[in-house]
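Entry 12.
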Amino acid sequence: MPVLSVIIVNYNVRYYLEQCLNSVTRASKGIDSEIIVVDNDSSDGSVEYLEPLFPHVRFIRAGGNLGFSRANNLALAESNGKYVLFLNPDTILSENVLEDCIRFMDNHPEAGAAGVRMLNRDGTFARESRRAVPTPFVSMCKILGLCSLFPTSKLFGKYYMGHLDPMAANKIEIVSGAFMFVRREALDKTGSFDEAFFMYGEDVDLSYRILKAGYENWYIPVTILHYKGESTNKTTYRYARVFYKAMIIFFDKHFRSYSLLFSLFVRLAIHIQTFLSFLANNLCRRKALKDGKEIWLYAGHPEYIHRIEALTGTPEGCLMTSRMSLPIGVKFHDYTVYDISAFTYKEILENISSNSGNASIATYNPTSGVLITDCEIRIDENRQP
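Predicted 3D structure (tokens):
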């Protein structure tokens, strides 16, 4: 029986998944593990592209879009690891993450699940790395904006548990489904993902059930990057409907005893919040499209600089390069392009974290000729394998 089963559900994000699998492969070196990818009937040729590149990965063709819960459950039934990692395809793992998680879980038998320190695309800390159970009160504080006004308050800011030190291990309540490291023994007791959730909310539900089964959920300060929602267009009404439905399913399942009036208030508030998020996402997207020009900083092997210039469309002389050294405290640029053949993912994530808020991450794979940013893929067709 392997120590670890890594399960990833893919839907039309083959290049993000390629990068994810590269990082998982590095992180699982020396670990008795299995990697399983469930493809939810992608139309971008994900399986055909990735199978030859990763012969050690088991690919399962779902034959349709099963959603997140059903697809994960399909892979779970075919996995054998003592621990199971449910992982999003739009993530990058530091090389030490899996080993550190296994060691932590081995030393904490009371832990049913663990999450990690997630970075946003610009290196800032992702608040959803640790969350509380969205009880009616906690949800109200979030919806009414009290969580943002008092982010470090144990009472009003509990939703994101902002009173906890992000660089220390702590007990939490909800583990993000982007990186959900679970003890199989806990899954055997609680059951796997509730398939009533098509997408979103299933991680909250499973985390809550793990707590109710008598286990603890933990936050471990080891680092990954999560692009967030690359397989889902968050500017669509479909996303708004699915997210709203997930919130209502969870609320009805676990807090049905509350009054109808209170329930209606929460439902109305969720509708309003979802609509405002929809508007904000669309405005940000339009602004990004209008702004146009970007400044790129490159860190990597010097011989690839002309490829980067061609991919970014940067005029000669406008592309700043740091060559084989990682940038420190450099400002006034939009993207830092990291050559993944020059640095470890751990070095890259530590660097973007130390320069948090200055620029978004971009990665370049010289083998495949793929440059990945937070919002698009650029490909040097001449370098395609």
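Annotation: The first helix runs from residue 14 to 27. The first strand starts at residue 4 and ends at 10.
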